[in-house]
Specification:
Blueprint (H helix, E strand, L loop, with lengths): L2 H30 L5 H4 L4 H4 L23 H12 L3 E2 H10 L9 H14 L3 E5 L2 E4 L10 H19 L6
Antiparallel strand pairs: 1-3, 2-3
Helix pairs in contact: 4-5
Length: about 170
């Protein structure tokens, strides 16, 4: 790898980090009700800003037609997060997956969201950044518990409930 290739790779890596942090700040501003200027939103993702006709303030604008045809729900969610490049709330990811042609089970919107949340939680590709906000496990700052840790926690919780109910483990 030449020095030039290395520098290009480093620039790309840090541009992605900058875009992630700027997107997080924009999301927090929107939660506070603080309006952002158009020139601030175009800085969210410099590589995506080069594509014409995209509204970077709305990640759902990236989804067109049946873009997730023949993919599982978790594959579609992963592809969407890769397109956007920063963490998003469960509801936004769910909307994008459905807009892209994937059906999520559940009779009510709450049940759909809960089912989708469970799918994301069980997949090793996703991690919680904060409450109800998902990122890819490969991104900096996104931590996914190891599957063994989750199994141990579930088992210890089940044993604790058995002891509380008076059941005992056969010796």
């Amino acid at each position: 790898m030449t020095r030039e290739d290395f520098l290009r790779q480093e620039i790309e890596k840090y541009e992605k980090k900058i875009a992630t942090y700027q997107a997080m700040v924009a999301e927090w501003r929107s939660e506070l009700g603080v309006s952002t200027l158009q020139n601030q939103t175009t800085q969210l993702n410099p590589s995506a800003a080069r594509k014409e006709g995209q509204d970077l303030a709305d990640p759902l604008s990236l989804i067109q037609g049946m873009i997730f045809f023949n993919k599982s729900q978790s594959e579609a969610a992963k592809a969407f997060l890769e397109m956007v490049g920063y963490p998003l709330k469960t509801g936004t990811i769910l909307e994008a997956v459905e807009k892209g042609g994937i059906t999520v089970g559940g009779k009510t919107p709450t049940a759909k969201k809960q089912n989708f949340y469970t799918i994301l939680h069980r997949s090793l590709d996703f991690g919680l950044v904060k409450k109800d906000t998902w990122g890819l496990a490969t991104w900096p700052g996104v931590v996914k518990k190891a599957a063994e840790e989750e199994i141990e926690q579930e088992e210890s919780g089940a044993e604790g409930s058995k002891k509380a109910s008076g059941e005992s483990k056969p010796s």
